[in-house]
Backbone:
């Protein structure tokens, strides 16, 4: 089986360690764990690896967050991957820091990257892994918070939280979304 694993983020050094780039960081960790390296291709950076019998195409779109759907649609069609075998990794400020939620579909919840993916795919029924970044920001400061860096305390626990997200992605590919949800949505 072939899977498209999409880590959402923004390209450029000014965004590298922001909360909004949690998807990129998880994609990087997944590839590193499989000794896969990224190469720049159309619409983004691509890495390929296997996890047992699953073939993973890992994508970090270079289209910026708000146009991520262009990259997702292109690689879905190029690789011939079914929509249920796409997993989009995205930051979510409605979830406590470091918690993950896997869902088979859902709304974009105001996330412009997810909104564009739904537009380009013609459906909101695609799997996603939401990585919690918390919501410790004053009213009206959401953009600054999301585009800001994690705190020192959060950075200290990031490796552990990212490892759990990587294991959840592997479970999604090897055992299916239902089992992955049951195993990882409580962690």
Residues:
């Amino acid at each position: 089986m072939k899977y498209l694993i999409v880590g959402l983020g923004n390209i450029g050094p000014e965004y590298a360690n922001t909360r909004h780039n949690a998807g990129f960081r998880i994609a990087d960790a997944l590839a590193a764990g499989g000794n896969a390296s990224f190469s720049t291709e159309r619409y983004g950076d691509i890495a390929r690896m296997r996890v047992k019998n699953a073939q993973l195409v890992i994508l970090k779109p270079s289209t910026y967050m708000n146009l991520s759907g262009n990259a997702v649609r292109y690689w879905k069609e190029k690789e011939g991957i079914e929509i249920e075998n796409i997993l989009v990794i995205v930051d979510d400020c409605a979830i406590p820091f470091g918690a993950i939620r896997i869902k088979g579909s859902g709304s974009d919840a105001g996330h412009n990257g997810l909104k564009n993916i739904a537009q380009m795919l013609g459906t909101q029924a695609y799997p996603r892994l939401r990585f919690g970044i918390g919501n410790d920001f004053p009213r009206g400061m959401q953009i600054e918070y999301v585009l800001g860096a994690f705190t020192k305390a959060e950075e200290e626990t990031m490796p552990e939280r990212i490892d759990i997200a990587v294991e959840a992605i592997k479970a999604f590919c090897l055992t299916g979304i239902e089992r992955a949800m049951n195993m990882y949505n409580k962690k």
User: Anything to note?
Assistant: The radius of gyration is 15 Å. Helices lie at 22-33, 68-79, 112-121, 142-146, 152-175, 177-184. Strands lie at 2-7, 39-41, 44-51, 54-61, 86-92, 100-103, 128-132. The first helix runs from residue 22 to 33.
